[in-house]
Amino acid sequence: MSAPQLSRKDKVLLHCAPLRDEHVNDRALRTALHHARKTESFAVQQNFDKAAASLVQAIPIPQEITDWIPTDTFIAPTRSRWKKYAQNPAFLATGTAILVIAVIGIFQLVDRLNRFPGEPTARRLLTTASSTHAMMLDPVKTDAGALGDFLFMKHRLVHYDVPPEFAELKTLGCRVFDDEDGQRVAQVWAVEKKMQFFLFPAERDAKTGKAREFSGWRNIEQERWAGVVKEQNGVCFMAAIRGNLKDLAPYISKKKE
Amino acid sequence: MAEEKQNLFQLYRFCFLMLADAAKAQEVFHATLREAAQLAANGEAPRDHLWFFCNARWRCLEAGEQGLQAEDVDLEQDELAEWAPSQIEKLEPQQLAVWISGAPDPQRTALALFYLDEFSYRDLLSVTELKPPELSKLLCDGRRQFQAWLDATFPATQP
Lengths: 257, 159
What we know:
The complex is a heterodimer of chains A (257) and B (159). With 257 residues, chain A is an alpha+beta fold. Chain A folds into three domains: 8-74, no CATH class; 82-114; 117-252, no CATH class. Helix content of chain A is 41%, strand content 18%. In chain A, α1 packs across α2 (27-36). The longest helix of chain A is centred in the middle third of the chain and has 26 residues, at 89-114. Chain B is globular and about 55 Å long. Chain B has a single domain (8-157), classed as Butyryl-CoA Dehydrogenase, subunit A, domain 3 (Up-down Bundle), CATH 1.20.140. Mean pLDDT of chain B is 85; it is low at 1-5. Chain B has 159 residues and is mainly α. The chains are: A alpha+beta (257), B mainly alpha (159). Chains A and B meet through α1, α3 and β1 of A and β1, α1, α2, α4 and α5 of B.
């Protein structure tokens, strides 16, 4: 039988081949050993190494050391370090996949937490706000808090009340219109910072017809416009401003009765 | 992979192979263990079993510089012989240690670690700080040089 041809890489590895199989923990070395297993030169090398290794094991240990250290004293084995695992391609790929899934999950969770009933309507009205001019509204100069009665008396809109946080702001104009879903929407133009208020029916449960409530203020931002939305008595109130949420934060952080 | 355990006596054998002097080997062995104990007492215990051999290696090289130095000559090399095991059996461990300790470093460290038969290929590369082709050449040359020395010492064993 002809001796198998060994590659240069195999030869390099075989010169370093450990005598014991348990020390062969390198894939390339294992392959080289597989290739060389039946070659005569490798068998000669292994016999040479085994004889030399046996001679090394015959080195006597001085009495002072054997007295001081018990025969079965071992150096602690290497602890598997996380870096070693992290460098494994399988762990690396799995870790990356988990990380990506986690990031997507967190984004979706945050997105879900920020959602609230009536958000699509609020976003639509934010677009309306960006395209509205003060001239399009009927002039109504009063306190925003007084508009609840005005809307009820003139348009029969119940609970269309401006929350206390914005009730003291002066208004310039007001109008009521039907949005694309046929819902009655009240739009108010405030003097301060050209702010606009929208009052519209809260989203309703399809089965029960009840308004879907939510507590506190919710934020939305869209195309350089920001809005804060609150639901009360089945009606949503949104204060909208050209800018960002920081501009609205001082109003909603105020505690009002 | 099974966790490896290194018998502490192997550390002494390593020192002996590096120095071929039992007293100096013992000194380095104790010094290495003392340093490990001090580090452990400071909460920085060596977490790598190779640390002991790396530390002992440098101590051995330092201690080796103080004594007689081997001449820097190109040794003869012979092909490994089938009868080499029978030649090696005739040696005393001290003779092997003298031969290994006379080799220039890093060949000395490579041979001492390799014939302890305690390390994987990667461990050998790590302690010797060599690249695979370098380690391979040093071990290959070491075997051939040792074979030449064996042939010169025990010529009668050749057929």
